[in-house]
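Entry for the shared binder. Reason: the reviewer on the internal report wants the predicted structure included alongside the sequence.
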Amino acid sequence: MSADRSKPEFDAPQGPAPSELVIRDVIVGDGAEAKPGDTVTVHYAGVEYETGEEFDSSWNRGESIQFPLRGLIQGWQEGIPGMKVGGRRELVIPPHLAYGPAGSGHFLSGKTLIFIIDLIDVA
């Protein structure tokens, strides 16, 4: 089960940051498919595209997290639907689908972000 999977390693990105959302399935799951508006249970880690510095990881906290997709950044709202339980997906999210342009008040504003997400459950 994906809840037992270990924390992922991030490959260093090549080239300039993309201007649009990039979705890549690392492992295709075989469970229920996430749909827009679902509540998802995930493990995830996120790094900054430019520096590779990790800014958040549910693995570091030792527990998965559950939340409704509609409450998340746009890149997650667009990037998780279609994913199946048991899967692992990488999302590369440009600033306009994350925390907005530099100076928007969030410490990650203006940054392209890379997330690796394990989908554990959908409701």
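Summary line for the report: The domain at 19-122 is CATH 3.10.50.40 (Chitinase A; domain 3).
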